[in-house]
């Protein structure tokens, strides 16, 4: 039977555990999650093991990155199942604080990111989001003091925001983006995929197919604006409500006009039924 990871819920206990790893000269990798773990999260854990002797996974559904109309209350929570999966993945420590531990009485500070956090993508539709993400990630990184922090590329703008924040704040760690894990039909794994009905699930891979086709056309030299116009129509016709489909510089997320502006990343967000899906692809 796989060894159960140590579960810590208070900052002093976390710091004692981290100090023991440090005293032994061991490097630490952190995988921040909101739980409801899937194969994408476990891919992050595998990459963490490849880089560090000790792997810490945080499980915290962060209330400050949800707007009042979003799905904080219904967000899937499966702690026992998550711990079983992390035991099999040989995770050393699970940091599972409560909201009261992360945001105690009198909490009054917040990280307000700029740069890629103000790119007019997720921030346009979820203006509260990256302030909440940056604040909680900054806390997680200072609490666990890792050498590496691993994030999935599916949340690409988030990855760029966290990378920029770590650089700007001189945090002594390396942020690593891990490629998106997909179903066999191309749908990016997400904890929110459980919200999809059977019919919606059959349509959902359209986003990835459209991204792949658009990337091929841009590589062939077709005008980016025209490629995106056609792709947006395809997404609309499939039954999605499109929030955005954009071609952006892969590092800064500023808009690009031609192949000369590479590296280029295509990013999309759209709703099918009540479920909002995001995806992205390098050109």
Write the layout of secondary structure elements.
Elements: E1 6-8, H1 11-23, E2 28-33, H2 39-51, E3 54-59, H3 79-88, E4 93-95, H4 99-102, H5 122-125, H6 129-144, E5 148-152, H7 156-168, E6 174-178, H8 198-203, H9 206-219, H10 224-237, E7 241-249, E8 264-272, E9 275-282
Parallel strand pairs: 1-4, 2-3, 2-5, 3-4, 5-6
Antiparallel strand pairs: 7-8, 8-9
Helix pairs in contact: 6-7, 9-10
The topology string of helices and strands comes to EHEHEHEHHHEHEHHHEEE
Order of adjacent strands in the largest pleated sheet? 1-4-3-2-5-6
Q: What is the CATH homologous superfamily assignment of the largest domain?
A: HUPs
**What is the C-alpha radius of gyration, as a whole number of Å?**
19 Å
Structural class: alpha/beta
- Give a count of the beta strands, DSSP E runs of length 2 or more: 9
Unreliable spans are none
Strand content: 15-25%
The backbone outline, from C-alpha atoms, is: globular
Percent range of helical residues = 25-40%
Helix tally?
A: 10
According to CATH, what is the class of the largest domain?
A: Alpha Beta
CA-CA gap between termini: 44 Å
**Global mean pLDDT:** 96
CATH architecture designation of the largest domain: 3-Layer(aba) Sandwich
- CATH topology name of the largest domain, in short, is Rossmann fold
- Integer count of domains: 2
Largest sheet descriptor:
6 strands, parallel
């Amino acid at each position: 039977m796989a060894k159960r990871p140590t579960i810590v819920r208070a900052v002093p206990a976390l710091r004692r555990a981290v100090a023991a790893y440090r005293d032994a000269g061991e490097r630490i990798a952190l995988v921040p999650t909101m739980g409801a773990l899937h194969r994408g999260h476990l891919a992050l854990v595998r990459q963490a093991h490849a880089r560090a002797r000790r792997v810490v996974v945080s499980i915290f559904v962060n209330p400050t990155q949800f707007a009042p109309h979003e799905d904080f209350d219904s967000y899937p929570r499966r702690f026992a199942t998550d711990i079983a999966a992390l035991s099999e993945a040989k995770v050393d420590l699970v940091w599972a604080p409560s909201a009261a531990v992360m945001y105690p009485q009198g909490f009054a500070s917040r990280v307000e990111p700029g740069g890629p956090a103000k790119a007019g993508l997720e921030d346009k539709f979820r203006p509260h989001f990256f302030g909440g993400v940056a604040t909680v990630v900054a806390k997680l990184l200072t609490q666990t003091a890792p050498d590496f922090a691993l994030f999935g590329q599916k949340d690409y703008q988030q990855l760029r925001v966290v990378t920029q924040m770590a650089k700007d704040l001189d945090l002594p760690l390396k942020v690593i983006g891990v490629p998106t894990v997909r179903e066999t039909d191309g749908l990016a794994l997400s904890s929110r995929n459980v919200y999809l009905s059977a019919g919606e699930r059959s349509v959902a891979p359209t986003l990835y197919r459209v991204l792949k086709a658009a990337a091929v056309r841009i590589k062939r030299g077709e005008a980016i604006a025209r490629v995106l116009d056609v792709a947006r129509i395809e997404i609309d016709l499939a039954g999605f409500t499109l929030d955005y489909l954009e071609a952006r510089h892969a590092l800064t997320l500023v808009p690009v006009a031609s192949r000369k502006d590479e590296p280029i990343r295509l990013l999309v967000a759209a709703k099918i039924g009540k479920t909002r899906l995001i995806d992205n692809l390098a050109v």
